[in-house]
Amino acid sequence: MKERFRSILRIIWKPLLGLTGLAILIIWTTGAFTERVEPGVVKHTPGFALPEDAETVTVELRSLPRRVGAVGTVVSDNTVQLNARISAHVTDVLVSAGEEVSRAQVLVRLDDRDVRAQRDAARAGLRRAETEYERIKKLHTAQAATEQQLIAAESAFHSAASQVEQAEALLTHTKIRAPMDGLVTDRHVETGTLAHPGQTLLSVYDPSLMRLDAAVPVRLVDYLTIDDIVEVELERPAAHMQGRVHRVVGEIDARSRTQTVQIMLESNDTPVLPGTFGRVWIPATERDAYVVPETAIYRVGQLEMVQVVEDGRVIRRLVKAGEVRDGAVEVLSGLQEGEEVLVQPVK
Predict the structure, then answer these.
(1) Separation CA 312–CA 49 (nearest Å)
(2) Of 165, 185, 195, 248, which sees the most CB atoms within 10 A?
(3) Secondary-structure class of domain 80-204 per CATH
């Protein structure tokens, strides 16, 4: 019997020991062997201490003139597309996009051999018609030619002269000249290209007459009158300048309910390229807004933050910023009048 008990004990002592250890471990993890701490509230002071040299500003409610932005595109008020008038191969393209050109400068040459041959044939025909006309006139004076023969010879002479003038005019179309002082925007042909009548070869614009064509909502058009001075903001180069309302297009876009307002840019100091994205600020009614210095707002990722001073402590607060003007920014939410914020946040 004892031998049997011993054999059973040899079999189960290891699992039994393992279960006992597991039970002790579970009881220990519940904290039964350690002193319990009574629940309570840990005192915590939010934020950090206000630095001694920190500059603060009080949030104030300020009356701001309301501005509404309307986007548009910069174009030149004087843009010319130079088209071919005859069918001929391009022999020379003397300018590239972006180059300055002067009035009457030759920009493109077309093959003029066919036109010159037509002109030479027309001149030869003119000489023959002139000789015949002079001969008939003498015969008519001597009453050896009829009035009908004189009229026919005169008509042939004038027709031949017209053909010469036409050939001379065609010859001038083989040299494409700049119609004004300006810049080349597009170059549509290369040497060897066969140009057809009406085909655009180059585009030239006047950089001194740039304007912004803005799509203005119909409800805001009445705020703009001809010759009004408005603020214009350009994307590239990033610049602020003044513009003068030049023209309001009468047609309304049925899809966007906007009218195109053409605004001449007043400043020529900053070179502006056609196609530049821009925005015109339209003055409307005034409104009250909370305003802080632009430097008081900083960003953490996509979040806009300020640091507010409360009881000598600096606390971060999430805000929503609005329009920036003259170094001050409108705060749409997150602050109240009279609160103090750091001008230069501690980052």
Answers:
(1) 6
(2) 195
(3) mainly beta
